[in-house]
From TrEMBL:
Domain Type II secretion system protein GspF: 114-236
Transmembrane segments: 64-91, 219-241, 253-272
Species assigned in the record: Streptomyces roseolilacinus
Protein's UniProt name: Type II secretion system protein GspF domain-containing protein
Membrane association type: Multi-pass membrane protein
Length: 282
């Protein structure tokens, strides 16, 4: 087992490599200057330089930064190994949360699209013109916008194109827009009135989802509190002079307790997350 100065040196080297990742800026600038058709000579634009650090930074790498503290205090590389294991797990969780936010944002733009199309129709615009204006102003159609607008402009199957665009996460409301469009074309019903009802239904579903998340926030807070209890116990032991990190990281009984406790902690978090996450599913 490695202790003392070598551990501190290794931990500080890891911190240096993590906090100063910008050694390859020259090659990246070269690839930026000569990529595609951008024949730009000279230094990169200020806006691009300001976005480089943000594009390279990933929040999950903070797990290694947090692991440096117990690694230095306990004189062991085990916390760094645990932090390295946590990086992909935390990254996966953060990406899942980002997908949920993107889905909600897309759902909001679909609601805005329905409201904008209905407003344009009442203002006297034709359906294709109203859809084109609303799509440009809201961006709700995403990558399928050219196909949908082409179908609307040249007499194609607009409902089918809208159903195809509804396959994106959070854009399922576009299938309702396609149904309203088809009913208005085939049966002569008012498209604006149908879109008003669709918008009201989508808003009600969004409000219901928000209420459910508010009710589950207390359960998530309980899960986080239970997960932090072991850390609080270690802090209390250190305050009492028991040196829990030395016991956990440098004794066979402590290592056994650390492995078993870590496994139970991970299983408990996974189980609690599954229970609370099941309540969030639509």
């Amino acid at each position: 087992m490695v202790t003392g100065r070598p551990v501190s040196t290794a931990a500080l080297c890891a911190a240096t490599a993590l906090l100063h990742p910008g050694r390859g800026r020259g090659p990246r600038r070269g690839r930026l200057l000569f990529a595609g058709s951008a024949a730009h000579v000279g230094p990169a634009p200020t806006g691009l330089r300001s976005r480089w650090p943000a594009s390279r930074f990933r929040p999950e790498w903070l797990c290694l930064v947090a692991a440096l503290v117990p690694a230095l205090l306990g004189g062991s590389l085990l916390p760094l190994l645990a932090g390295a294991v946590a990086v992909p797990l935390v990254g996966r969780r953060l990406r899942a949360r980002a997908r949920v936010k993107e889905r909600d944002r897309r759902a909001d733009t679909v609601i805005e699209l329905c409201a904008a199309v209905a407003a344009e129709l009442r203002a006297g615009s034709q359906p294709a013109q109203a859809l084109r204006f609303a799509a440009h102003s809201t961006g709700a159609l995403g990558a399928e916008e050219p196909a949908v607008l082409a179908a609307a402009r040249f007499g194609g199957d607009v409902p089918e194109a809208l159903r195809g665009a509804a396959g994106a996460a959070g854009a399922d409301g576009l299938a309702g827009l396609g149904a309203c469009w088809q009913v208005a074309v085939d049966g002569g019903a008012g498209l604006a009135a149908g879109l008003d009802r669709l918008e009201a239904a989508l808003r009600e579903r969004r409000e219901q989802r928000e209420r459910l998340r508010t009710e589950l926030s207390g359960a998530w807070a309980t899960v986080v509190l239970l997960a932090l209890l072991p850390v609080a116990g270690l802090a209390m032991g250190a305050a009492l002079g028991a040196d829990p990190l030395r016991v956990l990281l440098h004794t066979p009984a402590g290592l056994a307790c650390l492995v078993v406790g870590g496994a139970l902690e991970a299983a408990g978090l996974w189980w609690a997350g599954r229970i609370v996450g099941a309540g969030e599913e639509p």
